[in-house]
Amino acid sequence: MTSPTKTKIGFWTLLCLVMGNMIGSGVFSLPASLAHYGSISLLGWGFTAGGSLLIALIFSKLSQKVPNVGGPYAYCKEGLGDFMGFQVAWNYWISMWVGSAATVVMVVGYLGVFFPTLQGSSYIGFSCGLGIIWGLTILNMLSLKVSGTFQIVTTILKILPLVAIVVWGIPHIDSSHFQAFNVTSMPNHSAFMATATLTMWTFIGLESATIPSDNVMNAKRIVPLATVLGTLIVGVIYMVTETTMIGLIPNDVLQNTPAPFAVAAERLFGHWGALAIALGAIIAALGSLNGFIFIQSQIPMAAARDKLFPSFFGKTSKQGTPVRTLFMTGCIMSIVLWMNYDKSLVEQFTFLITLATLAALTTYLFSIVSEIMISLKERKAVKISFGAVCLSLGALFYTLWAIVGAGQEVFFYGAILFFASTPLFILVKFQGRRLYKY
Length: 438
Known about the structure:
The chain has helices at residues 11-22, 30-34, 41-65, 72-80, 82-111, 117-120, 122-142, 144-169, 188-200, 219-248, 251-254, 260-269, 271-295, 298-305, 323-340, 346-377, 386-404, 408-419, 422-430, 432-435. It has 438 residues and is an all-alpha fold. 72% of the residues lie in helices and 0% in strands. The chain has one domain (11-435): Amino acid/polyamine transporter I (Up-down Bundle), CATH 1.20.1740. Helix 1 (11-22) packs across helix 8 (144-169) and helix 8 (144-169) packs across helix 12.
């Protein structure tokens, strides 16, 4: 329950939460994937950054209209009712712990650059992953202030190597590399859509500032600012670094390197530069993981307070930390991590990551619909401007487009995941009185 001694988050911590959750280890490897399409990927980056900014603006509006803890969950409950609020909380929670477990795997992989035994032994790698999960989980359990400081430090440290690559790399850019515009056999519009779909994954987390609003100082002002500014800054960083990478490394080389930033750093700074980039990728993943562990405990807590999740999830410490939810999520992440180290389940695990991203996009879609519904309810009291209508419709169509880009198979299983929780919702509502006696 809420406590008067609860620690409050300031603007810089919240901004770093938004940026840190978006800038994970994926940005360090994505240029290689995009190189299979050519420099047309820059158009994809621009389109995705624009669409993500529209979504961020929607979330900033919602954070002012519904200043409740839970972010997307709170907005969907307010605009679409209990059932959709529950569904969004369920799907978002799943997307967070599955994605977090995937991030742990990436951290262990980058640590293998420094400690080869991690790559040679699945048992050692799994043990290291468990240590990372529970180390950050305990950090979030013990102190929100320490966790916030950790987020600020890791966000700064993860941006430094990216800035270094850009600053030292720009003078060495070869403009001829951009002539490989579309290296696929696909038409330009198909290649453009493919790159825009790929780049969308890196913007998941833009909503992070809206979720712990109950823990934020002056939330109505700070949450919208951190959401929009964080998304804008990250979009610029992505565009500039991708342009630099294309200009530094020929397309045929870029396509075949698993660590493109390390290759660029080695060319610019030598062997120690490559190691520094690998360290930067580790820090990026740890910062992203810390942020997601924090926010993935907030939505179940908010749903429990509204009697849409079991009361277990609503219990907090004296500092307002949902320790029980953090502990349960840590256990689930450990199980998912174990699945990755069972070779027969690797393909299933990879599919779950894609499914988790679709679940996150679904929360964006229903949040935008909720914003429209809330605005319609306010229509008698507040005049809706033409610009507001364009913003809502633009964000809505962009999110639908991104969901369609996930593919039919993923969309099919995503629908199953979304509605599989319906029996649980019925059970929770039916047993509500007994479940929510504190």
